[in-house]
Amino acid sequence: MYLKVKEAAARLGVSAASIYRWAKLGQIPVRRFGGSLRIPEAVLAKADESRTGPLVSSSILTLREAAQYLKVSRTTLYDLVGRGLVPGRRVGSVWRFHVGQLDEFLRGKVARR
Question: 20 in helix, strand or coil?
Fold first, then answer.
C-alpha cells in the first residue's frame, strides 16, 4: 500500500517538504502515480520502528522542522534563538539547526552566546 506525501509526513511527524527532500536525495523509495509521489507504507513501518534509518539521517533541520522536533511553536523557537538558548545559524534568509545541538538543549546543556 502507498501513502500520499502529506499522509507519510503526518505519520512521521515531519513536514511534507522533508519527504520531498528525502525523495529527491534518494533517501526514501517513492513511486510516481500520475503527477504525484507515493511512499510505500512498509518504508514508514521500518522508520516507525527504528527512527534511526535514512529517513532521519539528516542532522540539519529547518526552523519548522526544529520547532516540530522540540515540540514548540516557531515563534517560541525564534525567541529561544534570540535569547541565545538554542543554537541556530542563519543561512541567507533561512534558519538551520543541528539536531545534536537541539538534543543538548533538551538535556539541559544550554549554549550561551
Answer: helix
Instruction: Fill in the DSSP letter of residue 92.
Output: T
Question: 41: how many CB neighbours lie within 10 A of its CB?
Answer: 13
CB–CB of 5/16 below 8 Å?
Answer: yes
Query: Which strand (E) or helix (H) includes residue 33?
Result: strand 31-33
Chain Cα centroid distance, residue 95: 13
73 and 97 in a common domain:
yes
Is residue 111 in a domain?
Answer: no
Q: Is residue 112 part of a domain?
A: no
Q: Which residue(s) pair with 36 in the sheet?
A: 33
In a domain, 37, yes or no: yes
Domain residues for 44?
2-50
Tens place of pLDDT for every residue, the chain, 113 residues?
899 999 888 887 788 888 888 888 787 888 988 888 898 888 777 665 555 444 444 688 889 989 998 999 999 999 999 998 998 988 888 889 988 889 888 888 655 55
Considering the domain architecture, whether residues 46 and 76 belong to the same structural domain is answered as no
